Each structure stands twice: as structure tokens, then as C-alpha cells.
Amino acid sequence: MKKLILILMIGIFGISYSQKVPAVVKTEFSKEALQQKLEDEEGKTITIQQILDQHKGKVLVIDFWAGWCRDCLNALPKAKELEEHNKNIDFVFLSLDRSKEGFEKSLERFDMKNKENYWFASGWKNDFNNYVDLNWIPRYMVIDQKSSIAKYYSISPEDPELQQTIDQILK
Q1: In degrees, to the nearest 5, what angle opens at C-alpha 52 toward C-alphas 46 and 56?
Q2: What is the pLDDT of residue 19?
Q3: What is the b/e burial string over 37-54, where b = at least 16 CB atoms within 10 angstroms of the residue's CB?
Q4: Span 71-96, mean pLDDT?
Q5: Alpha-carbon gap, residue 161 to 159, rounded angstroms
Q6: Can you tell me the distance from the alpha carbon of 90 to that of 128, in angstroms, rounded to the nearest whole number?
Q7: How many degrees, rounded to 5, is the angle at CA 73 between CA 28 and CA 95?
Q8: DSSP reduced 3-state for 49
Q9: Which of 8, 15, 132, 157 suits 51 as a labelling partner, its CA being 20 to 30 A distant?
Q10: Reported confidence tier of residue 18, pLDDT bands at 50, 70, 90
Q11: What's the N-to-C CA distance of the chain in angstroms?
């Protein structure tokens, strides 16, 4: 009986805290989301708008991740394959590590130093993450050449819709 109650409690807890596909799929960013500040590896501040402006005219994949996230780390090999398969598009990595030191250690430990990395110094809850309904990592978004959201929600680099969206935009 105790085992049954324990299993039931674990199941209820797991369901209540698992990822949930957002009810509304957004195709544009709000002004507040675009003004969200992040830090690069040198500690310089940059906004989401500035990042998008740097990639305007290109297809961009945004990869939300953290060094403490087991699912993110398990996805890294497939994320690397996605990147290698799509050399003609840009990738940006947004870290949700809990500290600047954690961010720096994660970049080193997981061989991410040669990529375009930014860190949410403000933490998980901020205008950008709230706007995009960030409730799980890893999370992948595809941004088109005009900085519109082409693929809003994907939690795996192996999601076939991710590659399909990239291919469709590049046509």
C-alpha cells in the first residue's frame, strides 16, 4: 500500500512539473522581450534586439540550455549534429546557468567556448523568458531572416519540425 501511494505521489508531482507546450504560438517578440539584457562571455551587456540585429538576413536557431540541466547535456551531441548539418545558418546559445561562474565553467566543460553564448544574469524569470513561455530546457526556437519566430517551441534538437522549419525558410 505504501508503495502504491508513493508511486501515485511521484506521478502527480511529475505531471504537475513537466513541460507543457504553450497554448499560444507566438510569431513576433514584444518590445519588452526585445529589450531583455543578457551578458556575453566578457561580461558585456547586450539585448535580445541587438542579438537579432546581428543575425538579420540569416536564419537563426536559439538554443536555451544550462550546464546543470541533464536534459540539455543529453541533447548536446544531437544539437551539435543539427549545427553541423546546417552550416549556412546561425546558432546562438542562451544560458540559464545560475551564476556567472557556473556559466563560464559550463562553457569550458562542455566545449562551448567557440560558439555565440549569452547568459541571463537576471535568472530564469525575466521579460524575454516570460514572453516566450520558457518552462523547460533545452528549448529551441527558429528565427527567420526578418527576425520573426518561425518555430516557437521545440524541446529536442531531433524534433523533425525543427529541421523542416529551417529547410522551408531557406527555400
Answers
A1: 140
A2: 63
A3: bbbebeeeeeebeebbee
A4: 97
A5: 5
A6: 20
A7: 45
A8: helix
A9: 157
A10: low
A11: 59
